[in-house]
Amino acid sequence: MGGAMIIPVEGLPEVTETFNLGKAIAEQVQLTDGDIVAVSQKVVSKSEGRVVRLDLTDPGPEAISLAARTGKDPRIVQHILAESRNLVRVDEERGILITETHHGFICANAGIDQSNTAGPEEAILLPLDPDGSARRIRVELETASGVRAAVVVTDSFGRAWRHGQVEVAIGCAGIDPLDDWRGQSDQRGRELTATVIATADQVAAASDLVRTKTDGVPAIVVRGLDPYVTGDDGPGCASQLREPDDDLFR
Question: Does any domain span residue 172?
Fold first, then answer.
């Protein structure tokens, strides 16, 4: 396999609800079969109407109590609770709520973000079904370009053991998010028993090298990873999530 190329998709207009992301991307870059298109969660959420108004939010007693403990806006906390099925940890000192979302993601503040919103009274929620979002965008791309590309929906997550955030895949289609090497042999002939490569996460991380929150580039194309692109949509990023019994830290 040769080297991969990362191409920013520039010139996309402001994304609003019902926006056809795949068509807009295909109009800005010449796609080829085997490309992987990584799209920021934020524009995916905007296209799906996952934007809430804080001035129309009425926080409940639990949200008000948690907000007082963490110094957070109780209206944001209300949406964090609504988007979560489990409260994993309350960090009062740093003002962080670690939750398990309804998707099964373990992340800060249920993935809710206020950066790059239309105004200070708006917040952006994660897509309801990020794998479904990736499948939809994949169809839009193929309809607009005739090309069969893979799609990865990305979001920035913090890490419990290291400083700094990294972009990870929260949804994907046309790529298996995991490349299982177990049963193969290393260079010295020893059998690999634990090596499973997080392919979609690595694509997501690579995408962030050519775009930031400040440059207005919400999508990138990774070219040269054709062997990872599949004909069918595949299992999606839901297949990456550990069951609680398999999670050593919960």
Answer: yes
Contact 223, 7 (CB under 8 A): yes
Crossing angle of helices 130-145 and 21-28, rounded to 10°: 50
Say whether both 139 and 42 belong to one domain: yes
Rg, Å, the chain Cα set: 19
pLDDT over 70 (residue 1)? no
The mean pLDDT value for 33-49 works out to 96
Angle at 124 between CA 71 and CA 157, to 5 degrees: 75
| CATH code of the domain containing 93 | 3.90.1660.10
Number of domains in the chain: 2
- Residue 192 reports pLDDT greater than 80: no
Instruction: Give Cα 247 to chain centroid, integer Å.
Output: 21
Judge whether residue 2 has pLDDT over 80. no
Cβ–Cβ < 8 Å for 37, 221: yes
Please report, as a single letter, which amino acid is at residue 88: V
CA atoms of 247 and 250, how far apart (whole Å): 6
Q: Let me know how long the chain is.
A: 250
pLDDT at 204 over 80: yes
Distances (CA, A) of 169 to 46, 134, 142, 197: 17, 10, 21, 13
Q: Are residues 178 and 207 in the same domain?
A: yes
Residues sharing a CB contact under 8 Å with residue 224, sequence separation 6 or more, in sequence order: 1, 2, 3, 4, 5
Assess whether pLDDT exceeds 60 at residue 211: yes
Look up the domain containing 148 and give its range.
1-49+127-240
Place of tokens 């990872």: 228
The pLDDT assigned to 117 comes to 76
Q: Is the pTM of this model over 0.90?
A: yes
